[in-house]
Specification:
By secondary structure, this protein is mostly beta strands. It has a single domain, classed as SH3 type barrels (Roll), CATH 2.30.30.
């Protein structure tokens, strides 16, 4: 049964690949390595996508929770 609290659902996805869309419309994909109660996230092997194509590779990135529009987690 899926978790109803967003932070608990994210914690269950640690080390999985997630996609994150920011309020400025950028999309990042990477392995979720950390999350906190403010929804700040750390991704490893992060890539910035543009129209499903890799635009840039960043390695490790920190994304502030207040910049996140949505998070796509694997099913």
């Amino acid at each position: 049964m899926p978790e109803k609290m967003p932070i608990k659902a994210l914690e269950q996805q640690l080390n999985d690949i997630v996609s994150i869309k920011l309020k400025d419309q950028r999309i990042f994909r990477g392995r979720l390595t950390r999350c906190d109660m403010y929804m700040n996230l750390t991704l490893a092997d992060a890539e910035e996508l543009e129209e499903e194509e890799i635009k840039a590779k960043y390695g490790q990135v920190l994304i502030r929770g207040n910049n996140i529009l949505w998070i796509q987690i694997p099913e």
